[in-house]
Automatic annotation (TrEMBL):
InterPro entries: QueA (IPR003699), QueA_dom1 (IPR042118), QueA_dom2 (IPR042119), QueA_sf (IPR036100). Transfers and isomerizes the ribose moiety from AdoMet to the 7-aminomethyl group of 7-deazaguanine (preQ1-tRNA) to give epoxyqueuosine (oQ-tRNA). It is found in: Cytoplasm. Its main location: cytoplasm. GO terms for biological process: tRNA queuosine(34) biosynthetic process. This is S-adenosylmethionine:tRNA ribosyltransferase-isomerase. It is an enzyme of class 2 (transferase). The gene is queA. Monomer. Keywords: Cytoplasm, Glycosyltransferase, Queuosine biosynthesis, S-adenosyl-L-methionine, Transferase. GO terms for cellular component: cytoplasm. It comes from Aerosakkonema funiforme FACHB-1375. It catalyses: 7-aminomethyl-7-carbaguanosine(34) in tRNA + S-adenosyl-L-methionine = epoxyqueuosine(34) in tRNA + adenine + L-methionine + 2 H(+). Pathway: tRNA modification; tRNA-queuosine biosynthesis. Its EC number is 2.4.99.17.
Length: 377
């Protein structure tokens, strides 16, 4: 039996990953990535992601996150000429944003930052055209003022100077870059490869990477087999990736992320459960969306912020199965997946995946955890 006290210790979620196992480029085609399938408390097998229609059952329901990553990394300068790097985290109101900034010590409230429009390579220009109206190209320079420090993140609140009718998201394509994770250091990918094929609601600063494996054709094949699909929206922010630092993980506080679970999605999930179908979450962001919308004990339509932190001992309310990538050591995502099948077993599967040369993290391979593999509540 696992030691429950050990499950709550940060050090218990460590593992050693050779650097060459960190995927630097996505699989081409998307559904050619590998898939480790966990189908019982003691059995697992190895597949290719395109096998998914044969691994699920007619009547199952896939729940996907339709957020779209924005070009949230900006490079600018102070009036003095000092270079500044900004990572937008969360839209607040009236074109003010919470952001991480470098160098933070030199950006007190009142500091002005200037950003210049840039020439983009053709593939990035095509990507940016999907999130902005061409008529919004109104200027070659963008100005923001630091108005406050945010104690929760160590970031800054920035007020962007734009006409009231113009949203910053609509012009970001002229100034920003898609922020790939720091462990992707040598990539030939283009921005559209760091988007799901179904992402349509701009607002995330990172992709919901479990969804990167799906192609339009694969989604069609799943539908033809009677495996339906519905969507939630969680704009992936710092909460998903903020490192857990507390040695007692129960002391960790998640940064909130914006979620919408529509009445239509709730109705589809309830209908699936009523007929004995299985609810399969595509990614940890979908898990946090659905479980966050069910904190009262029953899934309800929800639009707002969630700070839900899932770790071993969690009582599951909605999600039965899970498609997920391989996650960083000591991360809240690793703890979430451990809550589904157990920490010892998950780390054992990770060791086998490393030995079999699976590719890890955002551009890496995937794992399918079927409902039959979960720990009892």
């Amino acid at each position: 039996m696992p030691n429950k006290d050990e499950d709550l210790l940060l050090a218990a979620y460590d593992y050693q990953l050779p650097e060459e196992r960190i995927a630097q480029n996505p699989a081409i085609p998307r559904d050619s990535s590998r898939l480790l399938v966990v189908d019982s408390p003691s059995h697992h097998s190895h597949h290719i992601f395109r096998d998914l229609p044969n691994l699920l059952k007619s009547g199952d329901l896939l729940v996907l996150n339709n957020t779209r990553t924005i070009p949230a990394r900006l490079y600018g300068r102070k009036i003095s000429g000092t270079a500044v790097e900004v990572l937008l985290l969360e839209e607040l109101e009236n074109n003010s944003w919470l952001a991480l900034v470098k160098p933070g010590k030199r950006l007190p409230p009142g500091t002005k930052i200037l950003f210049e429009a840039q020439l983009l390579p053709p593939e990035e220009e095509d990507f940016q055209s999907k999130i902005q109206n061409p008529k919004s190209k109104i200027q070659n320079q963008l100005t923001a003022t630091v108005v406050a420090r945010d104690e929760g993140t160590g970031g800054r609140i920035l007020q962007f100077e734009l006409p009231p009718e113009v949203s910053l998201i609509k012009v970001l394509g002229q100034f920003g870059h898609v922020p790939l994770p720091p462990y992707i250091k040598n990539t030939q990918s283009h921005p559209e490869q760091y988007q799901t094929v179904y992402g349509e609601r701009p607002g995330a600063i990172a992709a919901p990477t479990a969804g990167l494996h799906f192609t339009t054709e694969l989604l069609k094949q799943l539908q033809e087999k009677g495996i339906e699909q519905v969507y939630v929206t969680l704009h992936v922010g710092v909460g998903t990736f903020r490192p857990v630092e507390a040695e007692d993980i129960t002391a960790h506080k998640m940064h909130s992320e914006w979620v919408e679970v529509s009445p239509e999605t709730v109705a589809k999930i309830r209908a699936t459960q009523a007929r004995g179908g299985r609810v399969i979450a595509v990614g940890t962001t979908v898990v946090r969306s659905l479980e966050g919308a069910a904190v009262s004990g029953e899934l309800q339509p929800f639009c707002g912020k969630t700070e839900l932190f899932i770790y071993p001992g969690y009582k599951w309310r909605v999600v039965e199965g899970l498609i997920t990538n391989f996650h960083l050591p000591r991360s809240s995502l690793l703890m979430l997946v451990s809550a589904k099948i157990g920490r010892d077993r998950l780390l054992s599967l990770y060791r086998e995946a490393i030995a079999r040369e699976y590719r890890f993290y955002s551009f890496g391979d995937a794992m399918l955890i079927l409902p039959e593999a979960k720990l009892p509540n």
